[in-house]
Design brief:
mainly beta; 8-stranded antiparallel β-barrel; two-stranded antiparallel ribbon; about 65% strand
Length: about 140
């Protein structure tokens, strides 16, 4: 069965303000409630023309999924998105629960510590965490 979700994940900017990033997930859910699909995010798609992939599962009121970006990217202070298509993108782990009061999935996302090369420069980043919410629209 096909499902479409609209949502936001929230991340802190360089000044410590929480900013929403909008997304749309389209998935196919199998009989075991596992799913695969794609994620549309405006900033990323506008620069790369590519969707991210998503894979996860629903278990009663619990949802868990991994979003994988095709290319590495970085936001600069002015929220400009810089992409390095020579480097594979990172994964973001999402884990949440159904909130009957709001009619939405709510939970946390996490990017694990990572290191690598971005635009020919080595980097090491701390993990990041935040929250997300999403509603089924179809």
């Amino acid at each position: 069965m096909k499902r479409i979700y609209h949502g936001n994940y929230f991340s802190f900017d360089f000044e410590g303000n929480e900013n929403p990033f909008h997304f749309r997930i389209e998935v196919e859910i199998d009989k075991n409630f596992s799913f695969t699909g794609t994620v549309w995010e405006k900033d990323y798609v506008e620069v790369t023309g590519e969707l991210s992939s998503v894979k996860g599962f629903i278990d009663n009121d619990h949802i868990s999924f991994v979003k994988k970006y095709p290319y590495a990217f970085h936001y600069y202070k002015n929220r400009e998105l810089i992409v390095d298509e020579a480097v594979h993108g990172h994964e973001v782990l999402y884990d949440g629960y159904w909130d009957e009061n709001t009619g939405s999935w709510q939970g946390d996302w996490e990017i694990l510590n990572e290191s690598g090369v971005f635009h020919a420069r080595k980097f090491k980043s701390k993990g990041r965490i935040g929250r997300f919410e999403m509603r089924m629209i179809e």
